[in-house]
């Protein structure tokens, strides 16, 4: 009996095929199970470089390209293309088994052969070649085979390697890419370690290689699973992790550990799998947490999807999912009852009155932030502590006399809060951290944190105090390039040491390479911290799926832009994209309303995002902040003009505080980056008048 596997890149492309073609593909392959080799009607391809690559008829026009091993019975569907294209594609390709990983790889052998002579000629006159410093033995150890090695030896410039990305076997390309970017062979080996196999590899046994390749190929168990996989390719993360993701999710760590990686690299997926692994080990209760209730809801929904059998479901009962503020309030209430919360307007008034009374020359905004970001963040309780405190990220320098006066204001403010019995979310959290720090019986054995980049210091103190220091105590997922709130902290300062227990994910599963590259440009040249005393890099974050370049359009005024957005959405709907697969991100609540109204006016069902849930029947319109944690097949970022992004109200003026000004601008830039990287297949960015200074169009 034949088994069917589907190459993952095809799953991504499948959604773009017209519905009747999708149905035909499903029909053809649902009979696959019962077919024998002879009954499969796989056609040989004349002039093929690899006899094992065949085609199968889908209908009069469409053909599937199938990898049919010589021995074994696992058939891998690689592509669905129009007749001529399918034959050309099949003719040029060759399948092989990677000697380091034992996994299947497909290359465009024709492209390699045809570009090699010219590269070799160019290399003859070059003073040096790209891989002069790497010996053949190291190349071989890393799975680079003879053909790729010959090609690599002819390269003189990283640009040539970049251009070969589409035709070299992907894992071998990654190895070369790592070496070209200055990593040693040992470092590349280390990075690959999760994929390396100790098994003896038979380079001709494709069947075994396919079975060893869950990161590239999805094996389906019968027609029902085939249908499910085709219908919801985005749920695949539940079952098939990349080896690196798998390793991180299942490792045993001697203390706090962390996973980083650019947008869409599966950090949340890993955090959820990690929670499941910990729950199944049964060492004690676990908390899965993040910084907003909306994100906590989506983590909770994701975790439910992982409860695929009764045993796991039972283990997951020992996992609490809640955002950090909720945990803080819960702990607080158990001791003090419900807190009376200080409203923002009253807070401003209090700071203004205190500043005036004491003659402190700072506004309520500055004082409030100084209190939050320095006093609360560092848990400072006296003047001495404040005078000696680090004020990293606060921009404006304060002399000793100024500091003494600010402290006076802080002292008065805190006394007033105490007198009136008032709390803020920050003081509730700080108090909850104190309560738990004093308790020996901690509420959790493990804590898994997602979107860690946005948590403030007092939240970290609370989390640190909520589980005893032990192996596998804290697991932290985040990406500082996506920090959209004002919290720059150092894990080390929080007593959380992750050195030696950090991993970085690099493959983006959400976005096309084109959208990702364009979005990464938005952050080009920005120095971004890694929450651990160093700088974070997003270099090497890449997507294996090709698509269309983002569309960028400027309009003379907002009315014209709104008409343009409605026309773009209409175009998407007309090409079979469902309303629920479309999102519109804007900077302000006012624009959410304007865009929703404009879409409704154009007869397009639209809804303002609430609670982070998109609605299948309607186009979702939401602020960029609300877009965090979501993804859409097609995304329009509207109102990306100089007047909206950065939002004036969110940026401290340069005169008032140059440091805070720069930090605010960076945060706004990151926010635009977060919004753009929510798109899976198509991204359209528009503005009225002058484009946002963050966009390439403004340069
Ligand atoms: N191993 C995998 N196989 C298939 N899809 C995956 C895999 N890992 C992640 N994905 C998909 O990639 C998308 C992004 O995953 P996820 O949200 O976990 O990334 P992230 O790194 O947390 O993103 P961001 O930082 O942008 O919020 C999701 O649609 C997820 O289903």
TrEMBL record:
It catalyses: ATP + H2O = ADP + phosphate + H(+); Couples ATP hydrolysis with the unwinding of duplex DNA by translocating in the 3'-5' direction. Residues 240-512 form the UvrD-like helicase ATP-binding domain. It comes from the Bacteria. Its EC number is 5.6.2.4. Keywords: ATP-binding, Helicase, Hydrolase, Isomerase, Nucleotide-binding. It is an enzyme of class 5 (isomerase). ATP binds at residues 261-268. This is DNA 3'-5' helicase. The keyword Ligase does not apply. It holds the Pfam family AAA_19.
